[in-house]
Amino acid sequence: MTNQWHRPETNKGSMHALPYKNSSLSAPERVDDLMQRLTLPEKIGQMTQLDITMINTTGKQKDVDLDPEKARDMILNHHIGSFLNGEAAPARTWYEFMRELMRISVEETRLGIPVIFGIDHIHGASYLEGATIFPQGINLAASFNPGHARNTGRVTAVEAADLGHHWIFTPILDLGVQPLWPRLWETFGEDPHLAASMGAAFVNGLQNCEETAPLKLAATGKHFLGYSDPRSGWDRTPACLSMQQIHEFHRPSFQKAVDAGLRTIMTNSGEINGVPVVASHEILTRLLRDQMGFEGVIVTDWDDIGKLVNFHYTAENFKQATCDAVMAGIDMSMTPLHLEFNTSLLELVEEGRITGERIDESVRRILTLKFELGLFEHPYPRDDRFERIGCRDNRQQALDAARESLVLLKNDNRVLPVKKPSRIGILGPSANSRRNLCGGWTIAWQGGRESQYPDHIHTIYTALAEEFPDAEVHHFGPDDIPAPKDAAASRASFIEKLNGMDVLVYAGGEEPYCEFAGNITDLGLPENQVHELKLLSESTSPLVLVLVQGRPRLINDVIDIVDAILFAGLPGFEGAGAIANVISGRVNPSGRMPISYPMNPSHYLPYNHKKSNLYFFDPAVANQIVQGSVTNSLFPFGYGLSYTTFEYSDLTLDARSMDTEGSIKATVKVSNTGRVEGVDTVLWFTSTHVGRITRPVKELKHFEKVRLKPGESATLTFVITPDQVAYPDENGDLILEKGKYSIMAGDKKQEFRITG
Ligand code: BGC
Q: Does any domain span residue 604?
C-alpha cells in the first residue's frame, strides 16, 4: 500500500471538537469536513463491501463469529467501510458480533468512521433466530394491500435495527414477468403500478419507522434494472429490452421508491441488449441519476465487477472491470471476497484513468448515508429491546398478511370451506414442511434445513389439526402413497383408506431455492406430484390442491381432477395457520393473482401484453380477453375467488371527455351478493385505443379493497387524470394520446375521450 496518501496526523483526543463529529451540523457540512480529512485509500475503503467470511473465524461458512484480528486487518489496514451477510443467529450473537465490529471501526481507526452492515433480511429479519417471518413478496402483492408491505418493512426494521443491521437489502422492485425466473417469488408481481405501490410502502415502513429511534435504516431497491426479464428465464442471463419498455414497465417501481426516499439501490448483475448493467453509464447514470433523480448509494450486486471478467467477458481483467463499473456510476462494490477492488481503484486514480472527483462523488454519498442513519451518533447495537423480536404483535402482522395473500383459484361445488369435518387427509411434499412455506432467504440463503426452523411454527398438517380440534387429521407421508410401479392392489387399498375422508388436502409445489439454484427447464408441476394427484383423484373424497410455490408451475394436467385450488405462494412462518383458516372458513379468501397464471407450456405473457398478441384471435374474443371474461392465461392477473360473490354495476363517469388539464370522476357500485361477509379488490384498468407506440391491452391504474357484508353495497371512486394514461417514449418523455380510452372495473366498461 502506498503511504503517500496517509496523513499521519491523528485527531485522537480532540475528536469531539471536529466538525464532522458535531451532530448539530447538517449532513452536507459534516461530509465536507470529513472528506478533506480522508486519504485516497481511506476513501476507496469506504467504497468497498466485504462478505462476513472475510472477518469471521471459519472464513467459509456465514457464521456470525467475529475474528477481531481479521476485522482489524480489514478495517485498519484496508479501511473497509462496509460488510454484508450472515445466516440466522441468535440476537445475542449478532449483538456481540456487531458491537465488536463497530467498536473496532469507531474506536480504533484514525477518524472513527463507523462501518455499515448490509444484510438480506428479505421478508422479515430472516437471518435472525426467533424473528417474525412474513410472506414473500409475491404473497404481499397478492394481498393487494400495501399496508402489509409497509408492515413487513416496519417489523423488519424493529427486529433488526438494534442488532446493528442498518442496511436491509430489500425490497425487490424487479417486475415478475417471467415465470421461469427463479426469483419470481421475491417480486411484487407483474404489474408496474402494483409493484410500485408495494415497493414504496415497504420503503416507508422500513426507513421511516419511529420505533427504531434513535436508529435509522436504509432499504435497498434491487436489482436495477431489467434483471427479472431474461429471455431464457434463467438467473442473471441476458435481457433484451428497449429503452421505451424500460421506461414504461421496469422503471415505475424503482421511480416510486426513489420518490419515497429510497436510500440505496443494488445493480442488476445481468446484461441488457449486450451491455452488462453494472458497466452501463446509460442505465446507472443517465437513467437512474439524471432522469430518475436518485441521490443515494448505488451498490453492486455480488461480485458484479468480477462478473465483467469471468461471466460477461467485457473486461480483460479486474482493473478494467473496476474502471468500467465506477465510470458507469456505481458507488460501492460488493466485492466481496478479496481486496482487488481497492488495489485496482487506487491504481486507476494514480494513473489518472479515474479522477479524484469521481471517487469523491461516491464517497460523499456513502458518508451522507452514514450520517443520515445516525451511525456516527449511535454506532453500537443495543440489547435492551430484544423482547420485540418475534413478539406476539409482530407475528399477528405476519399472520394478517399471510391470510390476505392466499388466492382461491377454483372451488367447484363449494367444497371449501370445509364444515365440521370428522376426518381430513393431508398429503403432499409441503404437507408437513416448514421450509417449503418460506422459500429462499429464510434462515439461510437457500432456505434453512427443516431442523433449523423453530418448533412453534406450524406446518399445514399441524395447523389443520389445531384448526379442526374435533376432527381426526391424518397425515400421509411420502412413503404411505403408492408409486406408479406399485401393485394395483396396494393402490386400491390406499384409495379405500382415503374414501372415508371429508376432504383431502394435497399440499404440493416446490422446495425452497434461491437465484440460479432455482433454474428450471420445465415449468410443469413435478411429475411425482402429478402422479400423486391423479391417484388421489380416484378417491371419492373431495380433493383440494394447495400450491405452495414460488412461481406458477403449470397445472393443466391436474386442474380438472381437483375440486379446489388454493394458491398459497410462500406465505412464511404464519402461512400454515392462514391456510388452515381459509380451509375452515374462519378467513374468507381475498387474495388476487399478482401474476398471470400460465396456461401453456411455451407461451407466457403478462396481462398487459400488446394488442397484437391477440393477432390470431377473432376480434370478439380478443375484446373478451381485454375485458377479462375470456383469458389467455389459466387465471388472469387480478383473479381470485371468495366464499361470497360480488357484482359490479353502475360504472358511471361524470364526463365523457376531458382536456389535457382535466379529470374525470368514475364511480362503480360493488355489491356482496353472496351469503357471507367478504373483501373485494376493485381493480381499475384503462385501455388506450390508439397509440403511436403500441399499447398494452389494458393497464392497472388504481386498486382498492372493500369489505362488505352480505347484501351490502359500496360505491367506489377513481378520479382519472391525463397523466395517468400518458406513457413514456424511448427517452422517458411522456406522450398523451388525444382520442378514445376505455375504463374498466370488474366486468363493466365505459369509454371517454381526451381532447386537444
Ligand atoms: C443477490 C442479491 C443479494 C446479494 C447479497 C446476490 O447474489 O442477487 O439479491 O442481496 O447476493 O447476499
A: no
